[in-house]
Amino acid sequence: MQSDELANLAISLLTTVSILVVISIGLAVVFGMMGVINLAHGEFLMLGAFFTLSGQRAGLNIWLAMLVAALGVGVVGLAVERLLVQFLYGRLAATMLATWGLSLILVQTVVLIYGPTTQGIPTPLGSMKIGGYSVSEYNLVLIAAAISLLGLVYWVFTRTRYGTMARAVTQLPNMAASLGINAKGVNMLTFGFGAMLAGAGGALLAPVAGVVPGMGQAYVGRAFMTVIVGGPGVLTGTASSAGLLGSVDSIVSNLTTSFLGTAALLVVAIVLLRVLPTGISGRTGRQL
Amino acid sequence: MRHTIGCGSLSRCLTPLVAGSAALLLVTACSGGSDDAANSEGPIKVGSILDETGPLNIYGEAMADATELAIKDINENGGVLGRQLDLVSYDAQSDNAKYTQYASQAAQKDQVAVLMGGVTSAAREAVRPIADRTETLYFYNEQYEGGVCDRNTFNTGVVPSQQLAALVPYAIENFGENVYVIAADYNYGQISAEWVKQYAEEAGGSVVGTEFIPLESSDFGAVINNLQSTKPDVVVSLLVGGNHIAFYRQFASAGLSDAMKIVSPTFGLGNEQVVLSNEAEGITVAFPYLQEISADENETFLEQWYAEYGDDYPYVTDSAVAVWNGWHLWAKAANSADSIEREQVIETLESGTTFEGPGGTVTMDGPSHHVTQNITIAEANGAKGFEVLSTEEAVPPSFEQDVCDLISEPETNEQFTP
User: Which of A57, A118, A137 to probe by mutation at the B interface, max B CB count within 10 Å?
Assistant: First the structure.
């Protein structure tokens, strides 16, 4: 294998892993910290993409539009937690049903506002040559963004007062409450933070995917798979499972076809869950 | 008049009662249509089922718009047998189970004279058996993988033996002989990929790689890499749907546009050229209809379209025009048969009903129940539209003609594959 081919393969692999990270990190926060299964996660991604589109059409710089979009989806997340999810904590089936209903509402609302047709944002930056291959520079942005988002989650949950409280609420809610921590407020912020991360994921995907109201469906399956395989550890779980699944998908796809790549990814996920039913980070307990 | 889903809302059924007068029409519509619509005077009920919501509405919305406009146009020009058409339209919500349900409703409750609709092949296969069983004439107006042979079904969409037979040899002659196929992973993509192989070999080219991509996939990194190591001259894209648009974008952003040419029989149906704009420049397509075709019929058609839906309508797709052609072919056949009875309309259509559509003359091919139509090859111009390169006139559905003869064997009911 030539060195240019190897470098190209490495970038391709890291891009696939990074896409898995950006689509699943928001879900991992909500699931790992709160135990809420948010079936509207795909629609949060979709909203991030549409907000980016709107921002860009309003004349914002693309990177600024992405940032605003992520914050915007965070605000939507806060509202969803207050109006819907907060009444359903501890009721897994009810939460799933309610968030699934929410996902249908969000898709149709976006259809009504933006219309059903696929829209898009041209991929920013250009391409660069690596030997005989050319690579989109935006792929490098995706890789950097995935690392930054993981870093942001680490920083928020270990270095901020809110993060410490959030972990306390996750581990021993009664003890946290008796220490005077407002669990309601913390849960609201955690859901909003998860939504913001999902929004960031959608914003980052907008320039490489078709921005269409149903786009969430394309990602939500993979996001759930990454999070379930990863287990309860928000950071360790997401990073390791995205790394593993993404590598398998990318290597097999590059050596054979992307159809077999997807198949290999599913096989690995099934085998892993058989061997480690609580996910890769299941044994380390509910830590980051 | 247009109403959705019969008595869907209570107020619709109550309003005429409250109003007291002019209620007869709506009461009839709400009473379950016990009278035989085919024989009575007054409006003729016709049915349409399309995906106006859900992921497939990127195709279905334009087709539903075309349906309404076609009915309006037919009605303004005197209707059928001097009677107005009354459209009963159902939104299948991108759900095949709803096609089954609404097809039964349209056939049995509404007793429509003709039923049109279906976006995907799966939807068509949901409707077709019900239309057959209830003896309701059915039109499928969308590009598909070809080969349906059923006396009760007429297909106005373009088939591979028209589209790929024109596009693949053109690509091999102009861009080179090594062909790489990237196809959506369902029956359309699988069957069309077979066609590409056959037409490529006939034209002296060869298929150097084939990949099938699930509909929900939008990460084409590996495909881009495989293209770079295989270095084909031509990439045939049989990709479908919103997620697959990512391929064209990732292809352009990896800088491959100069190294190889994309040709596609599906690019444009979902308004890809509008979404991608300059990233799409140079992608070559072949369709019976493109908005840029210069013909008087097309000018009149577009004037009507924009007057109805506004000047900012993104792009009138080939699928929309297939729907328009389907309705007009049926109306013409019924008028010349002087009947809306299924048997007589089928016989008239089989005699070769012709309609001057926006993309040129469309003629029903009697034995195969598909249409002979013009195929225009064009290139995306990078400014949200296409530049017409050449037009081949009256291209027959040759594969369907070879395998299907419903005049001598009217009992045939199957889908032939290559």
Answer: A118
